[in-house]
Amino acid sequence: xxxxxxxxxxxxxxxxxxxxxxxxxxxxxxxxxxxxxxxxxxxxxxxxxxxxxxxxxxxxxxxxxxxxxxxxxxxxxxxxxxxxxxxxxxxxxxxxxxxxxxxxxxxxxxxxxxxxxxxxxxxxxxxxxxxxxxxxxxxxxxxxxxxxxxxxxx
Length: 154
Hints:
Blueprint: E1 2-7, H1 13-25, E2 29-34, H2 41-51, E3 56-61, H3 67-74, E4 80-82, H4 96-99, E5 108-109, H5 113-125, H6 129-153
Parallel strand pairs: 1-2, 1-3, 3-4, 4-5
């Protein structure tokens, strides 16, 4: 099981590393690749084909006009999670390029880096009992932190 994080450009590296950190915390391997669906669609296609025989989930990280997520989803039967970095430059309006897809194209859109990693983990967890236990522990740690914080503010 592996998550393939495909970035539209190297400027998406910081965002992608946060996704990879969550995956690492959950014991899931990830690889990072760069290919723009607008600028080098054949390279993007080659990357998708490279991993098609593996048990993968793709997470695409591209902002502005996010063709990468829809392009990736249209080329594979594997799950695709779009996790576009937020940009206040366009008042968040560029999110529509991740949300509006043509028929037959369905990448899931997740706005947070931690949440994208967790979503991929839960997909793999459907068939991996050990991973489900790690997810439960991860979620328990978050709940315990809330309880601790609540006690501190009383």
